[in-house]
Give the backbone structure.
Amino acid sequence: MSSTLFGAVDEGPAALPPLAVRMRPRSLDEVRGQARALAPGSPLRRLVEAPAGPAGPVSAILWGPPGTGKTTLAHVVATASGRRFVELSAVTAGVKDVRAVIDAAIRERELYGRQTVLFLDEIHRFTKAQQDALLPAVENRLVILVAATTENPSFSVIAPLLSRSLLIALEPLSDADLIDVIEAALAEERGLGGRFTLDDAARDQLVRIAGGDARRALTALEAAAGAAEDAAHAVVDEPDSVAAAGESAAGASYRISAADLGRAVEHATVRYDRAGDQHYDVASALIKSMRGSDVDAALHYLARMLEAGEDPRFIARRVVIAASEDVGMADPTALQTAVAALHAVAQIGMPEARIVLAQAVVHVAIAPKSNAAYLAIDTAIADLRAGRGGPVPAHLRGTGYAGAARLGHGEGYRYPHDEADGVSPQQYLPDDLAGTADYYHPTGRGFEERLVSRWAWLREHIRRLGPGED
């Protein structure tokens, strides 16, 4: 059997461009989503609508997840005023390719008075030297650079290039925007031409699969349309399906069900880049969800990281930090669980490590919270950086070497175990901090509640003596 999505004879994989390419917006009016970036007077709209010439648009860096329209907007910028469009990918291009584009842009400007728009995809993959090669042409507007990146430009683009470009952040498409994209692809002639209908359940599933990515939605839709057509032809090939064959021959539309979509698309791809901005954003969300005691949210971000292939040892280290930073003495066993998970994950690996990590995440998330120890050490460090902290008191100094006694080290030290309550009043802090250092403030949450009165008594008992008193 040989068929295509348009009912013609199959001419091979090159017969038609992919649906996502065919449905690429041709003007700003066709762009879905990015309402904020395309608002009247916004930098992006000015970039598209600015005339060519010295007062024309400046270069721009489009930063956003895949499928949000970065390439599309670059095409719109190029065609808005008849500009010449050149596209390079930082994955394959080098300095030689960049210089060739710049030389051609100079000829284009001198011979025809046309500006050149250079669309550089994945600019974050360019080295510093490669990005440096762009600077003179961008600064002199020999080319209008429209660069696209999925990673935070603050980390991946050199500062001189950033300062000479507009930074435009693009957002994932909303569910409503994705539905508009899908319905347009179903109806328009350049898309599926009205030959397919989509079940409500399949539409909802397709939106979930897309995850804010229009390209992914259209790719999945095209695959599902092919699955639906193949299924319909399989029915037609049955000997008893004469009526169905007549209906298909008459050009009736095909129905795409959730089952068709499920056959075409295995599962939703997790939006996560282990080496990019999403790495930090999702890790931050995991930590803040544990801190906020939302166990379900914490497990969601844990699953998201694991499904994307994040190193489970990295996750375990973050959980250990959270156990001390956010739980602390409110539940000292949280650190024990987290450290045990760190060692277990290193020994067993995935997929079983997910269970160990889940236990640790649940423990840290559900535990009472205290950052008293975290605040205490940072306050102590701040005192040191401010120049406070004199010599160690003589009675606390080491005595395990010859000559220490002659220097008076250890003289007057009171051994706490000789006291009835195991606590000996004496000065432990340097002279300039004695009586003023006030770092640890236990909360009234969890186990730490027991420490409030204990620490108050200890402070009063230990510090009965003033600085230098015996």
Notes: The beta strands are 59-63, 84-89, 116-121, 143-149, 165-169, 196-198, 254-256. The radius of gyration is 33 Å. The chain has four domains: 34-169, 175-264, 277-366, 382-462. The first helix runs from residue 19 to 22.
